[in-house]
Amino acid sequence: MEAPVKPWILGLTGGIGSGKSAAAQHFIDLGVHTVDADHAARWVVEPGRPALAQIVEHFGDGVLQADGQLDRAALRARIFQSPEERRWLEALLHPLIGQEIISNLARAESPYAILVSPLLVESGQHQLTQRVLVVDAPEQLQLQRTMQRDQAPEEQVQAILKAQASREERLRHADDVLLNDRDLKWLQTEVERLHHFYLTLRGGQS
């Protein structure tokens, strides 16, 4: 018997409002093991996990809610004003999030697995992957979708767009680009097309 082929890892990313989550959901519906970096990031700071104790030791009890959960808004406010504090937090969390992602991907039983991360390129998480799919959308469309979805003012969405990797930077790392400028049905058809293609790949490269 041949040893089972270890699943290769596809990195899936896209800017805010690009439709990355809808694409990821359709891959999940097709049976692909998917790990969300945002979920891993939330999980490593759950109460009882070592990272939360270190954060409280460093920043004080002001970053905790009454129930012992991390108060994200308070922590964000603290690191927003101080690049040093932000770097301290990233140095603590990035390796832990990386370990969480790796151990979760290792449980995959599908021919390939997906790491969904909005910061795939910026965080260096693309190094965990053998191939990168970028869900792309024109910036004007990203703005409209996000303002509708989050009921957020344009300035706020513009600020988030600026903080994320530039579209050019993301596309430079892309092996595949899914231009999501139509409706959900079309997006799902494109995901299915890519899925069939990915099933033919060994190790993520043709």
CATH fold-type name of the largest domain? Rossmann fold
| Strand adjacency order, main sheet | 2-3-1-4-5
How does CATH name the architecture of the largest domain? 3-Layer(aba) Sandwich
Count, helices: 9
**In angstroms, what separates the terminal alpha carbons?**
25 Å
| CATH domain class of the largest domain | Alpha Beta
Number of strands: 5
Q: H/E series, N to C? A: EHEHHHHEEHHHEH
Low-confidence stretches: none
**Which structural class do you get from the secondary structure elements?**
alpha/beta
The H-level CATH homologous superfamily of the largest domain, spelled out, is P-loop containing nucleotide triphosphate hydrolases
Strand content: 5-15%
Q: Please state the CA-atom Rg, rounded to the nearest Å.
A: 18 Å
Helix content: 40-55%
Basic shape: globular
Oligomeric state as shown: single chain
The biggest sheet, with number of strands, parallel, antiparallel or mixed sense and barrel status, is: 5 strands, parallel
Q: What count of structural domains? A: 2
**What integer is the average pLDDT?**
91
GO biological process, one term: coenzyme A biosynthetic process
Family: Belongs to the CoaE family.
Subcellular location: Cytoplasm
GO molecular function: ATP binding; dephospho-CoA kinase activity
